[in-house]
Structure prediction request, 278 residues.
Amino acid sequence: MQHSRTLRDLSLGGCKLGDTLASKVFGAWIHGRNLARGALDLSVNLLAGHIFQQADDKSEKPNEAATCKLLNFSGNLLTDEAIGPLTRLIERVEVESLDLSGNRLGKDTLVWLRERAPSVTTIDLSGNHLSLVKSASILELREPGDLQVRYTKEQTTIKKPRKL
Amino acid sequence: MFSLDHIDLSGNSINEEGLNLFLKGKLQTDENAPFARGLICNDMKDKNFLVNNPKSRKLDRLELAGSFSLIQDPSVAVSGFSMAGILHSGLQILDLSNNNLSADQITQFVERLH
Prediction:
């Protein structure tokens, strides 16, 4: 039986996927042995929060070379509750860029990402509910040489230089 | 030798005969090689021809995204094909965004990823 061994970029954006189906795709992306992970695009679907919990199969170890350049979950219905399980997955799989723009994320997401997403260098949080967060909470992320935070009313982008 | 990295044919009304020219490599000297490594046919009305064609297995990039304006039309959905047919050992980039994919198709696809 022939297997895919080199699939690098997969786009299933706008396919009306809910948590159950999307978690199967995401779980296979994290744990699959026949992939060369580049970018996974699950943007503009119907992800609400359980996708990462269901995809986090602790009994299965991710591929040893489990790095991912980009995870795109923009334009879904994700809330803060979804980010905890996501960061647990990111701890096990190095992710370079994370696009969470256009969701329903607030302050708790910033805390999760600050504490548990060491591999991520770029996070897009534009178009979320961060306007409800006090500016001080965002400024807490600014640590010299560690985090760069750009915050405007329309866009919030966090850039964290990769540690050598 | 491939002459092109990829070719973008999106937004055209290209038919099966036209696609065959690209897939069979008749536009170049080596008929066994496709015209380009990658074929981008976003918004194409009938995607099943490309998905089910064995010649597509020589491509390393296949983009068959639908569009929001067309997605309500069942004829543009990627339907009636097995995900097992689209994933092959050389495929690196696959774009099926904005299509109507069934739960069975997604499940088949996931099984192939493992």
